[in-house]
Write a structure and sequence with these properties.
seven-stranded antiparallel sheet; alpha+beta; single chain; 17% helix
């Protein structure tokens, strides 16, 4: 069995190992808005729910050359954001929003996405997503290692949106949602075999 010390690996090597081993990872497609009103959209796969009561989710946003990414900066300045579930229908456009644009340009406009008014927060949601979570900033942590840093954003969900065709008796029908997840490198995956296991008493 291969054994490695993370301290002996470069940032790139740690990234490649982690992202190819911790799979599949759900993809948070996040809209945020700058103080100037520019709508930013970007995907992040270091993401998951962390609590149901209170309803909390978290996303980890690595900095680039020490600088905060637009998404993190916008969330910290405005205090609101929307997380959209990435699925088979929107994944190609979601991927396009990972392009490098200056802060005064909108990926939403560039890619041709359809913003719509959110129910609670001021940040627009996107019609291309069938499941959305409107969030307010709950907590912000920073993790630093050498010259690298990561912004860890915890959001409190203040509104759910689920397309009618996916919603039944309080749950989302996963087979109709058709979520897409990240693997290592450029690889993505769709739902495979679904099975159930009874939990022990």
């Amino acid at each position: 069995m291969a054994k490695m010390d993370p301290k002996n690996l470069s940032k790139k090597d740690n990234y490649r190992l982690l992202t190819s081993a911790v799979t599949p990872r759900p993809i948070a497609f996040i809209t945020s808005m700058s103080q100037e009103g520019v709508i930013n959209a970007a995907p992040f796969s270091y993401f998951n729910i962390i609590s149901a009561e209170p309803p909390l989710l978290a996303v980890s946003i690595g900095r680039k050359q020490g600088q905060q990414k637009d998404t993190a900066r916008n969330i910290l300045q405005v205090g609101e954001f929307v997380v959209h579930v990435t699925d088979e229908d929107n994944v190609k456009k979601v991927n396009l929003t990972s392009m490098n644009l200056p802060p005064d340009q909108s990926e939403v406009k560039k890619v041709g996405l359809s913003p719509t008014v959110s129910d609670v927060v001021g940040v627009p949601s996107l019609k291309e997503s069938k499941v959305r979570f409107e969030c307010i900033l709950e907590k912000h942590l920073v993790f630093e290692e050498g010259e690298s840093a990561t912004d860890y954003i915890i959001g409190r969900i203040v509104s759910y949106y689920v397309d009618d065709e996916l919603y039944e008796e309080g749950i989302v029908k996963t087979n109709k949602l058709k979520p897409v997840a990240r693997l290592g490198g450029k690889k993505y995956t769709t739902l495979g075999k679904i099975f159930e296991l009874d939990r022990p008493d």
